[in-house]
Amino acid sequence: MKAARIGILTVSDRASAGIYEDLSGKAIADTMGLYLSSPWEAFYRLVPDEPDQIRQALTDLTDVEGCDLVLTTGGTGPAPRDVTPEATEAVCQKMMPGFGEQMRAVSLKFVPTAILSRQTAGIRNRSLILNLPGKPKAIRECLDAVFAAVPYCLDLIGAARLETHPEHIRAFRPGT
């Protein structure tokens, strides 16, 4: 089985400036390691909250690196510099709003400010781009809520096949 290519994009002014360590990107990689039983490799990027740099990183991960799945973290709030959803929408051909709706619904069980989050998802060519929140705990809660649908979505768009460890997350594929 060919290894899936997974992009991890952290969007953070402070982490990209070296003010603090990027724990969110690490949380995504750790979660993928826990969830996935099929081979995969990570392609990591760290950029500031700049729309042009976010768009460039997304297109680099999808078009140049050939990532099947790109998971972003950060830049999904209401602050003026939070522009990850707009950058995602700008590079995608199709938006997948159900991912963001489900992540917000689950997050609201933990914090009332989840309603301020603007996570989204979209498809660029044969890549699924999924925006996650910026805090490691919230990343895991959101991935737990939506990841069961990710492998089938990748199947439908012609991306790499992902297999999961069912004791951690069970991929849902109709008819199986």
Strand order of the largest sheet: 2-1-3-6-5-4
Note the beta-strand portion. 15-25%
Low-confidence stretches: none
User: CATH first level: which class?
Assistant: Alpha Beta
User: Portion of residues in helices?
Assistant: 25-40%
3D shape: globular
Number of helical stretches of at least 4 residues: 7
Our count of domains comes out at 1
Note the main sheet.
Answer: 6 strands, mixed
* CATH topology group: Molybdenum Cofactor Biosythetic Enzyme, Chain A
Class per helix and strand makeup: alpha/beta
Written as H for each helix and E for each strand, in order along the chain, the element string is: EHHEHEHEHEEHH
CATH architecture tag: 3-Layer(aba) Sandwich
From the alpha carbons, calculate the radius of gyration and give it in angstroms: 15 Å
Overall pLDDT: 97
CATH homologous group name: MoaB/Mog-like domain
